[in-house]
Specification:
2 copies of one chain form a homodimer.
Chain A: H1 3-11, H2 20-25, E1 38-45, E2 51-58, H3 59-68, E3 72-75, E4 80-83, E5 92-99, E6 105-112, E7 128-130, E8 140-142, H4 151-155
Parallel strand pairs in A: 1-6
Antiparallel strand pairs in A: 1-2, 3-4, 5-6, 7-8
Helix pairs in contact in A: 1-3
């Protein structure tokens, strides 16, 4: 990340979380981070509204997302900042961020660059649905038949 | 919950999480719960695709959701099962559940009964957006102007 973006990210000020009615009805962005310091972020396609992925942001990654205009998450498995698309080129340009009533979740409306949001090659990570509960064991069915890109070509055979 | 629903919920079998490629590409539902025993669930309007709310499910609440066909979450603040709409009548009929590549998040496609998903009276909890980062402190703007119902009439003045 460039020094300018880091400086802009650090300068952003968030609201106080002292007053519940202000959090719910007010005009200050006062995000709530859980005990791991993370907030849930749902990335949706800005055009279709389709949910592309669910990820998490630390305060640092949220600040960078706001300053950069591209989605920067926090990888729980790698425990590090994750500028989505930095290696694959599949960045998410953030057009709008919505927050919920208690400000502990975010919805990002993004333009997904490259083939798709999912490392498996699908445009969305949600490419399977649960079959009706009458099937036991509970089974899945693929609902997005076509991959948008070849993940081996982007990430290599070793993922 | 009726004994029949509890029995059906308990009888559901989930897949193993031993094989990563099976989790990503397979046909078994093998949900991953975090260290608090929860999985993130995003409720969307089945008709419009709009994100209505983000909540969490324990294994028990996920089983009940599948058996009942209505959203049953786990309330992190109250630390108890939360059959959404049980008091307000604003139940969410679940038409479809999608899971993501690593099966640690769910998208529910629901029919929201009653006025809306949010306790504040809006159809969605995501009724505010963040204004562009040039505004500092970071500010919010309401994007859903009309409440769908009067929360005081449903929940009483004391929420």
């Amino acid at each position: 990340m460039s020094p300018e973006i880091n400086t802009a990210a650090a300068a952003l000020r968030f609201g106080s979380r002292e007053d519940k009615s202000e959090i719910e009805a007010g005009g200050e962005f006062a995000p709530k981070f859980d005990r791991d310091g993370l907030i849930t972020a749902v990335a949706t396609d800005a055009l279709t509204g389709e949910v592309l992925m669910v990820a998490y942001m630390s305060e640092a990654s949220l600040r960078l997302t706001l300053a950069l205009g591209e989605a920067v998450y926090f990888s729980r498995s790698r425990q590090e900042l994750w500028h989505k698309g930095a290696t694959s080129g599949h960045v998410q340009k953030v057009l709008e961020i919505l927050t919920d009533c208690d400000q502990d979740a975010l919805v990002l409306r993004v333009q997904q660059r490259g083939g798709g949001a999912c490392h498996t090659g699908y445009r969305s990570c949600f490419y399977r649905r649960i079959l009706p509960a009458s099937t036991n064991p509970v089974s899945l069915q693929t609902v997005i038949e076509e991959r948008s890109y070849d993940p081996d070509a982007v990430y290599g055979k070793e993922k």
